[in-house]
Amino acid sequence: MVKRTREPNGAASIYKGADGRWHGRVTVGIRPDGKPDRRHVGRKTKAEVVKAVRDIERKRDSGNLSKPGEKWTLGSWLEHWVYEIAKKYVSENTYAGYEVDVRVHLVPGIGAHRLDRLEPEHLEAFYAKMQREGSKAGTAHHVHRTVRVALAEARRRGHVSRNVAEIARAPRLEEEEVEPYTIEEVQSLLLEASKLRNSARWVVALALGLRQGEALALQWDDVDLDAGYLRIRRNRLRPRYQHGCGDEPCGRKPGYCPKREQIRREHKNTKSRSGRRTVGLPDPLIKLLRKHKEEQDRERTEAGADWEDKGYVFTSPTGGPLSPNTDYHVWKRLLRDAGVRDGRLHDARHTAATVLLVLGVPDVIVDAIMGWEPGGAARMRARYMHVTGLMLRKVADQVGEKLWGSFGGE
Which residues form the Core-binding (CB) domain (predicted)? Predict the structure, then answer.
């Protein structure tokens, strides 16, 4: 074996070993047990070792060198991150999305890769495979956002030297063209909704543009019918259940267990300042809400001791909060029964925004009604407020009057 020359403390050493290969050792820090962290590389030639040593030194000096210890796979890191880190610091809805992406897609699909050897091409190939197997581009895009956040945390903690998800190309999303409902379609929906229980729920959606979570979280102490306004302060959360069947398992999923137990709070406070807002009520809607309250009072009397007195404006027949999933299916049935083209529940919000545009409501008032952040309000108006045939006809008439009016219509 070639004798090594002693280097100053902390300096790299390069030497040729008895195996005929060249070796390099670089001190990069202190290990968790307090001993020096010395990284080793071996190559066939001295030049290759020198290059590898210099690369380690650069990463060490720039703070981009991965930590010693456990060699994470992508799967083990994602599970640790989502259950031990993200769960403590993000909202329930955000966590639910992360957890599904990790459990359903990332761990079984690409989790076997070594975390420190993951490349952007691995992620891009995985996204393409997801879509070939039937996942929508939006699903793959959501998965990309999740792994990007997880790898950012891994880099922050020194487990990887770079975030390859920031380099990988996310799946392309085609902007979905939304056609708001016409006044005639809205009238057909309102007529059909008047036959339903909680009919005011759909008037609130189409006239005020409330998000689903905002509408389902409304409570009567948020509504002042005498003054003619309501306050948006909460968002309904999607229910999550656990089994309550104990020693006699029912064999069903938790949500279908006959003795299921709710493990998530029903709502959360609206977090953004713009989301917490006051919205004026049109007179017809005030009358409709008064009638709705009277009907709910009758239901309370009929339900007796079974009534859950939680103060919600829109409730189940026994006073409990409405499930977002049930609410969605009622919307779909409403569209079919009204003979109106199919659309997302969120399209009702697009419709309300477009009506405000048609009415010429000033932008600052529109932003306040819709709950848009000041910094992104212009972008949201462009996305939600659609140019309609009525508006185009009005502009065409104005142009015609300006250009040809003096010719007496000829």
Answer: 72-155
Positive or negative, the Cα torsion across 339, 343, 348, 352? negative
- The contacts of residue 235 (CB under 8 Å, 6+ apart) are 211, 213, 214, 217, 267, 268, 269, 270
Residues 237-288 have pLDDT tens digits of: 888 778 888 777 787 887 778 777 777 788 877 766 667 888 888 888 899 9
Residues 223 and 324 in one domain: yes
CA distance 304 to 87: 39
Asked if 353 and 382 count as a contact pair (C-beta separation under 8 A), the reply is no
Does 33 lie in the same domain as 118? no
Question: Based on the domain organization, do 335 and 197 belong to the same domain?
Answer: yes
Residues spanned by the domain of 324: 183-233+270-384
DSSP 312: B
Query: Does residue 199 sit in the same domain as residue 219?
Result: yes
CATH number at residue 141: 1.10.150.130
- Distances in Å between the Cα of 233 and the Cα atoms of 56, 172, 221, 238, 371 are 52, 35, 11, 17, 11
Alpha-carbon distance of 56 to 122, in angstroms, equals 24
Give me the number of domains the chain comprises.
3
Query: Which residues, 6+ apart, have CB-to-CB distance to 147 below 8 Å?
Result: 78, 101, 106, 123, 165
Contact 207, 172 (CB under 8 A): no
Element (H, E) at 165: none
pLDDT tens for 151-207 read 999 999 888 889 999 999 988 877 666 677 887 888 899 899 999 999 999 988 888
Tell me the backbone φ, ψ of residue 25, rounded to 5 degrees: -130, 130
Give the number of residues written for the chain.
Answer: 410
**Rounded to an integer, what distance in angstroms lies between the CA atom of residue 180 and that of residue 175?**
15
